[in-house]
UniProtKB/TrEMBL annotation:
Annotated signal sequence range: none
Pfam families (UniProt xref): TctC
UniProt protein name: Twin-arginine translocation pathway signal protein
CDD domains with a match to the protein in the record: PBP2_Bug_TTT
Family: Belongs to the UPF0065 (bug) family.
Gene3D superfamilies: Bordetella uptake gene, domain 1 (3.40.190.150), Periplasmic binding protein-like II (3.40.190.10)
Superkingdom field: Bacteria
Length: 343
């Protein structure tokens, strides 16, 4: 008896039902692969980032948001091996930059540094078309907080906040600078001037990088602005800090009292920021970026760099960002109303 020849691998010689089963099985495998592939695409790329990431700063170069974002961008580049390219898009109290972020593709390649103003102030300003923090962009992680500083030109003949109030009343009308209508740097001085009985005119700028030269030139007499932007000028003596808005004295300025210590207990508020992405960005990407920011915030070298310029490094979950914003919105809404800016 001779051996039967082996059947060819091409499938010739298979019974029809066997062939049909093979075709069906192959189709099911292809279908499963397609479903898995779709799921992977929905959750984000397997490797992110694989190209440069745009990092929007909604304020001018040289201010606190720009400075601190650049420190984080440097660390993110080292972590991921891709450039995080800073793009300054200032204007309209930071709304222009965040609106550009909200209009970007939700693919993980556009990120922005949004401040407390974007989350809890700008939406209540009647004259502004501000992005909706609950609809237009999604939080990733808190990244820093810092007190504001009540700052005046170093040449003014005042040493304390009480000295300044007395001096300002003798001057009559004076001006204060801010980073734009509706920002905390506008609301704080407006309320202070009203409660202190000062005749103070608001001069809005695009950021501290413009406010500081105006102050040094004598065009504005004071501001209540982010400490980070002013630290080098304070250390150089061009600007004098009269108080900080935190609940405690800032470690880098131990001799400068809090607003509460100066008799102004309603001014104990800090400024903070979070990284945000367009709504709909894949959760896998949000999670990977949040994890990187958490590690960066825990780096002692980063914490020291932040402290040197007057800020505290933070990290959080996206849910914690949303919770903080929700907690502070009622306070800021009332402040907007008292400043006469609400609709």
């Amino acid at each position: 008896m001779t051996d039967r020849p082996s059947e060819p691998p091409s499938g010739r010689g298979l019974r029809p039902e066997t062939t049909r089963r093979a075709v069906v099985a192959g189709g099911l495998a292809l279908g499963a692969a397609a479903v898995i592939g779709a799921a992977v695409r929905a959750s984000g790329p397997t490797v992110w980032p694989d190209r440069p990431v745009r990092l929007i700063v909604p304020y001018p170069a040289g201010g606190s948001v720009d400075l601190l974002t650049r420190i984080l961008a440097e660390k993110l580049e080292a972590r991921f091996g891709q450039p995080f390219v800073i793009e300054n898009k200032p204007g309209a109290a930071g709304n222009i930059g965040v609106a550009a972020l909200a209009a970007s593709p939700a693919d993980g390649y556009s990120v922005a540094a949004a401040t407390v103003g974007h989350f809890a102030i700008n939406p209540f300003i009647a004259a502004q078309a501000a992005p909706d923090p609950e609809r237009d962009f999604a939080p990733v992680s808190l990244v820093w907080e810092l007190p504001n500083v009540f700052a005046v030109p170093g040449r003014l003949p005042v040493e304390t906040l009480a000295d300044f109030v007395g001096w300002a009343k003798r001057q009559g009308r004076l001006a204060f600078g801010s980073s734009g209508v509706g920002t905390s740097t506008h609301l704080f001085p407006t309320l202070f001037a009203a409660r202190a009985g000062l005749d103070a005119a608001h001069v809005p700028f695009r950021g501290a990088a413009q406010t500081i030269p105006a102050m040094l030139a004598g065009d504005v007499a004071f501001t209540i602005d982010n400490l980070t932007s002013y630290m080098s000028y304070i250390e150089g003596g061009q600007v004098r800090p009269l108080a900080v808005t935190g609940t405690q004295r800032w470690p880098g300025l131990p001799d400068v009292p809090t607003m509460a210590e100066c008799g102004w207990p309603d001014f104990a508020m800090t400024s903070w920021a979070a990284f945000v992405v367009p709504m709909g960005t894949p959760p896998a990407i949000v999670g990977r970026l949040a994890a990187a920011l958490r590690d960066i915030a825990a780096d002692p070298a980063v914490r020291d760099r932040f402290a040197t310029v007057g800020a505290r490094a933070l990290a959080s979950t996206p849910e914690e960002v949303a919770a903080r914003a929700a907690q502070e919105r009622p306070i800021w809404r009332e402040t907007v109303r008292l400043a006469g800016l609400a609709g």
